[in-house]
Amino acid sequence: MNSTNQDNESLAQLGAAIRRLRARSGKTLEQVAEATGSNKGTLSKIESGKQGVSLETLNRIAQALRVTIVTIFNEMWEPTSTLEIPAPKMYRPVPVYGPIQIDADGCVINAVVSLQSEGAVDYPAKGSKTYALRAKGESMAPRVRAGEFIVVEPDSPAQPGDDVVIDYNEDRTIVKQLLYERDGELTLGAINGWSKPITVSFDEVHSIQRIVAILPPGAFVPRKDEEST
């Protein structure tokens, strides 16, 4: 095999790896394009192995998919015969509430007051109760930026390592990473990694809702005023 064929094969493997990781993240080409400052056509060519990609662009793609460049390279060499082809995902509007502001410790400063959503984001939600929260401020950066949307699925069981929204102790709400449960207590870590883990009694917890995605500001679709139609 000559060097040209090897280069083409590497581009195809890299593109396929990016496509698989994007499919797992639940993001569309448009969403990744906006997050990386690229366009849909360029990303489509990269995923098809028809166009090379600079290290800088690859790093932006990795950040948009919430992975590292190393993860992408490792994905390139996964045996394709053992990989499952994901089924087509059905996107639907998910109501957006907020904005919510969260302090450095992960505590929600301003709770959602209005029960009427301000719009929606498209996401392949698994449950009918799925909703999204608009983030305000940079206290959760770089994990969550101001204006991004935190997609929450109350019906999806949370596992250790998941980011979660927890209601506990007289209607207090926090956004944390679920580390582990032991002896009737939950140990929770900071999403941004800046503050120390905390422990709360499981008896005080009213609900644990799993965060399934972080979507960019461009995913938002404003609510149409029914009175003006």
TrEMBL record:
Question: What SMART domains has UniProt attached to this entry?
Answer: HTH_XRE (SM00530)
Gene Ontology terms for molecular function: DNA binding
Lineage, top-rank taxon, reads Bacteria
The chain positions of domain HTH cro/C1-type read: 18-72
Keywords, A to Z, come to: DNA-binding, Transcription, Transcription regulation
Q: What name is this protein filed under?
A: Phage repressor protein C, contains Cro/C1-type HTH and peptisase s24 domains
Protein's organism: Propionivibrio dicarboxylicus
